[in-house]
Structure formats: structure tokens, C-alpha cells
Amino acid sequence: MQVRGRWMLSWTAAILAMFAAGLAQSAERFIVLQSTTSTENSGLFAHLLPMFTAKSGIEVRVVAVGTGQAIKNAANGDGDVLLVHDRAAEDKFVVDGFGVKRFDVMYNDFVILGPASDPAKIAGETDAVAAFKKIAAAKVPFISRGDDSGTHKAELRLWRAAGVDAKSASGTWYREAGQGMGATINIASGANAYVLSDRATWSAFKNKGELKILVQGDQRLFNPYGVILVNPAKHPSVKASEGQAFIDWIISPEGQAAIAAFRIEGEQQFFPAAKP
User: Fold this and answer.
1) Cβ atoms < 10 Å from Cβ of 129
2) What is the pTM of this model?
3) What is the SS3 assignment for 139?
4) Does an H or E element contain 244, and which?
5) What three-state secondary structure class fits 111?
6) Which of 28, 83, 85, 86 is least enclosed, having the fewest CB within 10 Å?
7) What is the pLDDT of residues 239-266, one digit of tens each?
8) What stretches in the chain show pLDDT beneath 70?
9) Which of helix, strand or coil describes residue 1?
10) How far is CA 276 from CA 15, 107, 151, 247, in A?
């Protein structure tokens, strides 16, 4: 009986060990997604990611920072997948060997926000560069993200196109927040200042104050997003199969339909862009 008892205990222990190992393996089915504040603050990921997890069993843990920081994090191996919006930097990330391949995912657009009183008189302007020239000429407060994000880089491109050295005015009418999109809009709202924002974060933002969309629709305000698997040849810790599963899903007809279905107050915010 003692032998039988010991055998039963050993068998039970083995079963429990196998069960625990299975739970541990299941718990480890996650990826780290380096991405932007716009995708997080807008609520898009809260809409999308549960669908992917339900289908795949893979949890997605998002690190939401500016595009520049997200790319640095991914290049350091602190993530499995990168989803950002700065095409030139994305292409360089792949060329430099940090990413496997870039895929188009979606696009939205930037808008120029400002106070309803509009002291720079840019309301209804269809040329974003002309609007930036007017803001600089009027020397009215403009809040920049100042954080090397995709939005910040788009803003700097507009200043360059306008022939304005905004950096030289830093601390006067041009103020750098060094913050994410939501925090930057909040500062602009409190200061009745102009600011460049992605449309989705603005739509989701609650503390609008006197701010409103004054300029939109210029082709220069087009804002594409790409997704890239971090290169496991550079960083062996990358969960390549799980990361690729996420990419395959988000660019699939199902993932693209989920992106198109995301609404804020009934308005579509992101538009599918994956190529068949």
C-alpha cells in the first residue's frame, strides 16, 4: 500500500507539474507592441486588440510613446512589433536591419487646431503651409509636441516648407511641450494656442475648451501608418511567430474591417491601407 501511495503521489505531482507548465506557457503568449500615443489615446487599440487576442490567444502589450521613441525602443530590442507613422524613419529602420519588412496598415490625417477667436486668421485655409506662415507672422502661441514623434516631425516639415525657423522662437510664441498628443492638446486648450494634432486623438479629446479645427484637408496633412516585425536576427528574444501573427491579422480583411469600423461619435477615424 505504501508503494501504491507513493506512486499515486508521484503521478499526481507529475500531472500538476505538467498543468503548471501549460499555464506558464499560455501566460507567456504575448507580444510587446511599440506604437504611438495617437493609436492608444484615440481608443483604437482598445477597440482592435481584444479582437486579435480572442482569435489568436496572444495578448498585445502596448508601449505608447512618440514615434521617434518607439523606433528607438524597437531598435534596442524592447519590443516585437513596431506600428508608427513616419514613413522615412520606418524605411530606414528596415534598411538598417532592425525590421524585417514594412506593411501599410492604415491612414488618417492631421488637423490644425486653434482658438475660436483665431487671431492668426487661418480658419478655412486649405493650404497648411500658408496657415503656418500666418501663425508665425502673427506671433501667436503655438504648442509643439517637441518629442520627436511622427506628429512633431510632420509639424517641423510644415515649418520648413513655410520658411520659418520655429526653433529660434522657442520660449516665446513657439512652445515645446515634450509631451504626448493628449497632453499637448490639453496645454494648447489652456493657453488658447494653435497646435497640430492627428484627427483621432482630437476627436477623442474631452477638454476641448475654445479649440476647434481650423485647417484640414491639405494633402500635406495625410498621415500613413506602417507595421514592422522587429528583426529576430538582431534580437533573438523577439517573438517572431506571435509578432507576425499580429501583423498578418491587422493587414488581413478581418483586421482592416475592424480598423474601418472604429468610430468616435459616429465618425470614422482611421482608413484601411493594406495592399492585397
Assistant:
1) 18
2) 0.84
3) coil
4) helix 240-250
5) strand
6) 28
7) 999 999 999 999 999 999 999 999 999 9
8) 1-27
9) coil
10) 46, 16, 28, 13
